[in-house]
Design a protein that fits this description.
alpha+beta, four-stranded antiparallel beta sheet, 7 helices
């Protein structure tokens, strides 16, 4: 039998429907047709379309955010690497006397003398920072820089930019300004941005020349300057420094056997170099005094023996070989001694004493030598023996050649004799 309430099939004689609990005793005995089951509901559409639309919207928002982030990052980096920002950062570093940092913003010519170490050392005395209350930086095309044309003449490359920095110091009524020029280095920052560097041409000088003795060495701040390209002339050499930062340096010139020369030099646009001669040390002067006595005695004895100049030329510098005056003077001494009217029978020169005569010049040292002079001769009028006991002065000049001191003049003279 079937339940009239839910249509479920039950056993015949059952009092209640096993499915819904409806009473079955009042149901007619006839078997009704079973009811049709509920018609199936049409399937609900899946949610894939809405999800796709939502995903597209999310991606679009993220792309917009990403583009904005990229654009913002680009603008930040574009500003960070702009020449105006570099000029500003450089000026602030110099205003704060941060010379090591300032050096990193600069583009200097290739030179062993334009290192960061020398830049910092040259500015070691610049320790007073600029305290300012206002700062503006404008491109030079916004400024009237007619008084700056000479400076810009050397900086007219199209890959260069010039800015005018104007600032007011604290407590000052007027503003102060300066120009800063930058150039492209040809390198890139993160592939897209040109690298700009400051060209502080007011920070260095060019072709600074120092002339020193040929065997001496030149040092700046204890750094020996390479002299392999130096030019030499007349016992001196000229060292040209192609670039050097303006500022103060400890300059020193040294040579074996000479007193070291040392001074602080303030390199500026008006500095072109200088010529430096060294004084002999006390030991060298004493040794030269002894050598002078030996050379004078040698020349006198050679003249007494009638020797030729060729036989005595080893004591002279090479420059004397082309000097006929010295050769002729020596021959005059020989002729004077050999003169029959003089009748010189003996000569004794001793007790030499040498002092420096003036400042050394062109690698030459001049000395005034005094000595005891004992001359023995026969009077030409009565044939009597006679002698002269006196002091004589000799002017002696030495030049250093290949580590040896050689005479550049003839210290003896025919007038030394009676």
């Amino acid at each position: 039998m079937y339940c009239a309430n839910c249509g479920a099939k039950n056993e015949d004689g059952a009092k209640f429907c096993l499915k819904c609990g409806h009473s079955l005793k009042e149901e007619p005995t006839s078997t009704p047709n079973p009811p049709f089951p509920n018609p199936p509901k049409p399937p609900k559409p899946h949610g894939n379309g809405k999800a796709i639309l939502k995903l597209i919207g999310t991606i679009s928002v993220e792309l917009v955010v990403l583009v904005l982030l990229i654009f913002g990052a680009y603008k930040i980096l574009d500003n960070r690497f702009s020449p105006k920002t570099i000029a500003t950062d450089y000026w602030k570093a110099t205003a704060d006397c941060e010379w090591s940092e300032a050096y990193d913003y600069c583009d200097f010519p290739e030179s062993t003398f334009l290192t960061k170490e020398l830049y910092v050392a040259a500015n070691a005395d610049n320790t007073e920072p600029i305290h300012y209350k206002s700062l503006t930086i404008k491109s030079s095309n916004q400024m009237d820089y007619e008084d700056y044309n000479e400076y810009l003449y050397n900086l007219k490359d199209q890959d260069q930019k010039t800015y005018y920095v104007q600032y007011r110091k604290r407590g000052a009524d007027n503003t102060t300004g300066e120009y800063i020029t930058l150039t492209k280095t040809g390198k890139k920052k993160y592939l897209f941005w040109n690298e700009w560097k400051v060209v502080p041409t007011n920070s260095w000088v060019e072709n600074l020349s120092y002339t020193i003795p040929v065997d001496a060495s030149l040092s700046l701040n204890d750094k020996v300057i390479d002299d392999s390209s130096a030019t030499t002339d007349d016992g001196q050499k000229t060292i040209t420094i192609p670039y050097l930062f303006t500022g103060k340096y400890q300059l020193q010139v040294t040579e074996d056997g000479m007193k070291p020369y040392s001074e602080y030099v303030d390199v500026s646009y008006s500095t072109y170099g200088e010529s430096i001669n060294l004084l002999p040390s006390e030991e060298t002067l004493a040794a030269l005094g002894e050598q002078a006595g030996t050379d004078i005695k040698f020349l006198l004895e050679s003249a007494l023996q009638g020797k030729s100049f060729k036989e005595v030329q080893d004591v002279f510098a090479s420059t004397v070989m082309d000097n006929s005056t010295v050769k002729n003077d020596y021959q005059d001494v020989v002729d004077r001694i050999q003169n029959k009217d003089l009748k010189l029978t003996g000569l004794d020169v001793s007790d030499f004493n040498a002092t420096l005569d003036g400042q050394p010049y062109n690698n030459e040292i001049s000395m005034l030598v005094t000595a005891t002079w004992n001359e023995y001769y026969i009077n030409y009028w009565d044939e009597a023996d006679n002698d002269l006991d006196t002091n004589r002065q000799f002017y002696v000049t030495y030049r250093k050649e290949d580590g040896q001191w050689k005479l550049t003049n003839l210290p003896i003279d025919s007038y030394h004799f009676v």
